[in-house]
């Protein structure tokens, strides 16, 4: 126990109670075991790199289709079953009157034919414009064609 007193000897023996410490540590261990995997979930794709990319900040209504290197689809960073992509895209874009744009972000190691397959599926289900996302090549500066020519 925490403390024990011996009546016959007259001395008091103090021992630390480690049970609350162990309980707290076990609870923290369980919390971290549950929380850490959910923090790293989502789309893990390394997109191809390009030069002279025009900056495009994400807006609230933008729809993003991610494809990881295994060919798994992610709609707005949430994993979905590959078979349901067409139905989910149709449901989203049938409700829209304007702005039927979808951005695709695929891993650079993925076969390009799989990116084209996804483009075909979304095009047949209500998406009018497909944009492909890539990352700026390190050490280069993004510049649009108009900026190069000195135009407006």
UniProtKB/TrEMBL annotation:
Pfam families: ExbD. It is a single-pass membrane protein; Single-pass type II membrane protein. Keywords: Cell membrane, Membrane, Protein transport, Transmembrane, Transmembrane helix, Transport. GO terms for biological process: protein transport. Signal peptide: none annotated. GO terms for molecular function: transmembrane transporter activity. One of its GO terms (cellular component) is plasma membrane. The chain crosses the membrane at residues 24-45. It is found in: Cell membrane. The keyword Cell inner membrane does not apply. The keyword Membrane applies. Belongs to the ExbD/TolR family. This is Protein TolR.
């Amino acid at each position: 126990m925490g403390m024990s007193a011996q009546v016959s000897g007259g001395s008091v023996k103090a021992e630390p109670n480690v049970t609350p410490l162990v309980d707290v540590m076990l609870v923290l261990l369980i919390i971290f075991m549950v929380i850490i995997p959910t923090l790293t979930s989502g789309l893990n794709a390394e997109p191809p790199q390009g030069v002279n990319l025009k900056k495009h900040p994400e807006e609230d209504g933008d729809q993003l289709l991610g494809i990881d290197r295994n060919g798994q689809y992610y709609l707005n960073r949430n994993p979905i079953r590959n078979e349901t992509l067409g139905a989910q895209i149709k449901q989203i874009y049938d409700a829209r009157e304007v702005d039927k744009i979808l951005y695709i972000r695929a891993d650079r190691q993925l076969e390009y034919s799989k990116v084209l397959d996804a483009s075909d599926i979304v095009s047949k289900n209500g998406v009018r414009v497909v944009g492909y996302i890539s990352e700026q090549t390190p050490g280069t500066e993004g510049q649009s064609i108009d900026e190069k020519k000195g135009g407006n």
